[in-house]
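Escalation from tier 1.

The customer reports that the assembly of two entities below gives different structure tokens on two consecutive runs. Tier 1 could not reproduce it. I'm attaching the input and our single run for tier 2 to review.
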Amino acid sequence: MSADGRLRRYAAGGGRRILTQRLGFTLLTLTAVATVVPIILVVVYIVIQGAPAISWEFLSGVPREGMRQGGILPAIVGTFYLTLGTAVFSVPLGVAAAVYLAEYAQENAWTRLIRIAIINLAGIPSVVYGLFGLGLFVLFLHLGTSILAASLTLSIMTLPVIISASEEALRAVPQAFRTVSMSLGGTRWQTIRRIVLPQALPGILTGVILGLERAAGETAPILFTGAAFFLPRLPHSPLDATMALPYHLFVISTQVPEMPIRIQYGTALVLIAFVLGMNLIATVVRSRARARRQW
Amino acid sequence: MDKIVVENLTLQYKDGTESLRAVTMAIPANAITVLFGPAGGGKSSLLRCFNRLNDLADVQTVSGRILLDGLNVLDPDVDVVALRRKIGMVFARPVVLPFSIRGNVTYGLELMGERDAPRLNEAVEHSLRLAALWDEVYDRLDDPAIALSGGQQQRLCLARVLALQPEVVLLDEPTSGLDPISTGKVEAALQELKKDYTIVLVPHSIQQAGRTADFAAFFLQGELVETGPGKDLFTHPRDQRTEDYVTGRFG
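Tier 1 run:
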């Protein structure tokens, strides 16, 4: 076939190919939109329904009249403490485990076992964590239903997220940095502390925040371990039980008759603001670090 | 005087790539010794044996001895951290650490626990001058090192090594990614440095080997074919294979 003929055939097929491409792009755009629409709908709906409930009294008061009146401060504070408690246990442990896996461990049967354990830990339903926490922390270790027991339970649930994200962040740091550092007389630990960890920090922080965010929104793990049905005061010690936003939301949505709907949505709005706020922090941390990154 | 003596060194990696077979040679002090030959000949592997950087790689077997001032660096009891301070290394691709220019130079010293600011500053200026970089960066030492050009980065890598006041400087194709002007600056710096240091260079071209070598060693597929003063090796090679390579018949 002559070059001219090939060219003509190519041109003739061009129209169909371009059509296929347009169709493909359109479908891809639609799927992208399909993932964004639900989150927008949920947030908008909750804001519209819940915004009227938001007032200083709602945010700073204790529940009254069988939770049908008053505020949700104990639940806000409780969720804050639970998230903080979870961070205290899961962040050091998770980051240390990630450093071990990424920087020290050889690839062998033992590390494969650890990885399988981590993956499976991530797949366990949250209510099972709740029962486990009840058995181990509340009963066996006599911590009672308390912020401490609930935080420990949430920590175990959060660990896989933190470990996986941290390990990935550590592995993303170029190998050449490690070689150079050691060629300059650095020990493995000096190399990790001075170069690898600081460079991986934004990625680790992102993982930590995403993990904690999930912990903040969970109901089942704290159900038997630390969440109180109705406790209209602020917790005094880590051994106190506490109200918490997700569980409070569950309670006022299903367990209290004649509950004003605006209080339900107001509570949902506060919870979602709490979680999305953490998400926002993670996003800002990540984008700032990316702009500053030197590799 | 010989700074490093290699005795019957044999090395094999787990994946079967590049190896060394019974290499025996001496590297004189205060001179530039050039290790050259086609890729995969074992030059880089030998360099990485000197500072035990091969410890980080998957080495199957290593036997023989490498004597640095009479002490076997391959001895498992050797303090590799101290060894690597004595034997500095510059890599083919300049890898600046994610710090400032100053931070890159002081990094090795800080690892040793040096915190004295005047001493660190003095080391920064001294090393950057030795590496022929001071005049280009003295007014922006706190800028990120990554902002430097490739040639400047490589000289920074050299300065970073010199800050530790090593005895031996290993350079693994240090100018392979550089333009001719930067290459010239690095080579000129090496000529100055050899007065005080023992330099082992894997050149990125046969021309560079010819320009820089006081002593040269020709490696072919893990075997040391021939070694001798640079002038002799490049003009009157004794081995046919060396002659073929030097005259451009292969490689």
